[in-house]
């Protein structure tokens, strides 16, 4: 008999939603019309200027490895974006282009976390954060957060949960699955709480650009030593291109570059050349139109779900998610999601994918479908609640 697979592979949990997605695809293949509100991927295709830049790169033969840190001109463009949008001066040498935001998370966790040490993470939160820590033999110290904390870590929570194995904290603004933001003052306070404990602050800014009625502050406005994870997937609409970036303190760059060389050599070269078009005025105009459309979707779906009885205590200011309490309807979240998929052909995500704290009676809706499709979804959910027994 062969040896069992590794303990780490067994410890990393699958996405519970993938079972629902597989079933949704089966239903769709059988001819049913499924409204997909489960996956965090914009329904818009990549903007045309980016596609054309990628096609031109392929036609020009720009298919070879780049430097591990990424194309110099792309790192300069990202630096210019920080100057324009946030008013901060970031040396391009501090920027590493990565294979998606996941590549940035892999580099940062590998650099900062030794076996048995941990980051503090908000629970609920993006599941891959804790799974990446397990992969490198580190740990995630999940900190329960609710509407009172707007689902975010606070300096008080850091003080309460910090111990001798803590090396830092990872926060997200805007956050998945809750869509909440950390203000500039809140980021500064968290930064100070980490600094007095000689800890690292890591901030996931992957949903920056997708905020409604308010602009998100970057932690780099208040903490030049923070590690920032970002991505071309969400605001820039390049999910399948697999491209992200990391901003790090200057003294960390050499070690991060060494890790990048060994882990993935370089980010996809064609995607990097295409991403140069992200920062052109015509592209940004398209992206801002899409941001406005996401805002309209949120402004429809949020009150519609509340009217049906879903508990959404905190209005999300960013990303494209609504994290809803289903306590009023009884039952567990996975069975609840399964019911609506099977009876009404609406797919959304059980809270079990996002942590432990009160996960069994929460679900996440992604408003990544058009307004007419969201209207159909609400009609079906209202009907499904009646058959659920409400």
Describe the structure.
It is a single chain. This protein has a 7-stranded mixed sheet, sandwiched between helices. Strands 9-12-11 form a 3-stranded antiparallel sheet. Strands 1-10 form a two-stranded parallel ribbon. It has 390 residues and is an alpha/beta fold. Helix 8 links the parallel strand 5 (166-172) and strand 6. The model has no long low-confidence stretch (mean pLDDT 96). It is globular and about 60 Å long. The protein has helices at residues 7-11, 16-29, 48-59, 72-86, 100-112, 127-135, 155-161, 184-195, 253-263, 269-275, 281-308, 333-344, 371-388; strands spanning 35-36, 95-98, 118-123, 139-144, 166-172, 200-204, 227-231, 244-247, 321-325, 346-347, 349-350, 362-366. The longest helix is centred in the last third of the chain and has 28 residues, at 281-308. It is built from 13 helices and 12 strands.
Bin the strand percentage: 5-15%
The secondary structure category is alpha/beta
Query: Major sheet, described briefly?
Result: 7 strands, mixed
**Got a strand count?**
12
Q: What is the element string, with H for helices and E for strands? A: HHEHHEHEHEHEHEEEHHHEHEEEH
Radius of gyration: 21 Å
Task: Offer a quick outline of the entry.
With 390 residues, the chain is α/β, with parallel strands linked by helices. It contains 13 helices and 12 strands.
Structure keywords:
seven-stranded mixed beta sheet; 42% helix; alpha/beta; 390 residues; 13 helices; three-stranded antiparallel beta sheet
List the helices and strands and how they pair.
Blueprint: H1 7-11, H2 16-29, E1 35-36, H3 48-59, H4 72-86, E2 95-98, H5 100-112, E3 118-123, H6 127-135, E4 139-144, H7 155-161, E5 166-172, H8 184-195, E6 200-204, E7 227-231, E8 244-247, H9 253-263, H10 269-275, H11 281-308, E9 321-325, H12 333-344, E10 346-347, E11 349-350, E12 362-366, H13 371-388
Helix pairs in contact: 2-12, 3-10, 5-6, 5-9, 7-8, 11-13, 12-13
